[in-house]
Amino acid sequence: MTLKTGLEILKAAQTGSYGVGAFNTDNLETTQAIMEAAEETRSPILMAITAGALKYSGTRIVDIAMAEAKNATVPVAIHLDHGDSFESCMWCIRKGFTSVMIDKSHEDEATNIRETQRVVDAAHAVGVSVEAEIGRLVELGAEVIISEENATLTTADEAERFISACGADTLAIAVGTAHGPNKGRGRPEINHQRIAEIRARVEQPLVMHGASSIPQDVVARVNQAGGVLKDAVGIHDDDITQAIASGMCKVNVGTDLRIASTAGIRELIRDKPDIIDMRKILAPAREEMKRVIVKKMNLLGSAGKA
Ligand code: 13P
After folding, report:
1. Ligand 1 pocket check: which of 144, 255, 261 to mutate, most ligand atoms within 8 Å of Cβ?
2. In whole angstroms, what is the distance from residue 172 CA to residue 62 CA?
3. Does 147 have pLDDT greater than 70?
């Protein structure tokens, strides 16, 4: 099947009132887990590759994702997640990505608009769709750190002003989620009213970053097998379904796959100490990721929509 743009997949989701997962990949097994889950559930997907994944593997992760996606029988977009510059977006477009995110949400609004517009102009000229972001998610992980005090929820005014000025196709908004395994103390509070207010003013599909649910049973398995995941909490399933009902279309998930694969690897190494074959060590990781992804596709309502 030929690749779809992110916008094509998300417009269909918007019309059909369901969510679509954008799953982060950075290696072969994760890519296989995402594609197998999508085929098995007949679910459209965005295969999301971050700048960090590109730095780690160069073009190899792109080659793997493209090869898997081109054999797919369900709609797939290859998406740059958190592109940090015009140049990185152009590099991805040249490699065949059908969707790019330019993330200048940490800059002032005028700079965010200007930099996003530049990417939009170039991407639209070659039929690629663009995601932009306004507002700031809490970032408690190791890579980018934005404290709870510096995080700001997106307002309806700025969302409407920003999207009409920059011309992006889809809009990531901050509504109380956070990237990584520590999304707050207790159950993270999602501002559903804010999602509905923004939806009423912005017709473009909305994007929820930091949407991993951090399943507590999987966290417990990691810790029982020697891991140390402290205070790991995620977004409640009810908040995801309510967010979709209020107008969210794209739901970003990466950390859940990391935790699931870690559980599979740790248990395999603990239970079968004679195994030295990397394929046998990574096979359970792939199965664990696939299980989590299938569950998420059912929750989002994308299962059966391909
Ligand atoms: P999680 O860390 O919740 O999986 O979020 C991933 C994400 O938003 C990638 O852009």
Report:
1. 255
2. 23
3. no
Counting atoms of ligand 1 from 1, which one is nearest the CA of 253?
4
Closest atom, ligand 1, to C-alpha of 141? 2
Active site members: 81
pLDDT tens digits, 195-227: 999 999 999 999 999 999 999 999 999 999 999
Does domain 6-300 bear CATH number 3.20.20.70? yes
Is the pLDDT at 84 greater than 90? The verdict is yes
Kindly state if the Cβ of 247 falls inside 6 Å of ligand 1: no
**100 within 8 A of 92, measured Cβ to Cβ:** yes
Whether the predicted pLDDT of 145 surpasses 90: no
CA dist 120 and 107 (Å) reads: 17
At residue 150, the pLDDT reads 62
* DSSP secondary structure letters along 248-300: EEEEEE-HHHHHHHHHHHHHHHHH-TT---HHHHHHHHHHHHHHHHHHHHHHH
Q: Ligand 1: distance of its center to the CA of 156 in Å?
A: 23
Of 235, 225, 213, 228, nearest to 285 by C-alpha is: 225
Q: What is the pLDDT of residues 159-189, one digit of tens each?
A: 999 999 999 999 999 999 999 999 987 889 9
Residue type, 150: N
What is the model's pLDDT at position 140? Answer: 58
Residue 235 in contact with ligand 1 by CB distance below 6 A: no
Separation of alpha carbons 47 and 62, rounded Å: 10
Q: 237-246 and 192-201 are packed helices; what angle lies between their axes, rounded to 10 degrees?
A: 20
* Beta carbon of 180 within 6 Å of any ligand 1 atom: yes
The pTM of this model reads: 0.96
Decide: helix, strand or coil at residue 102: strand
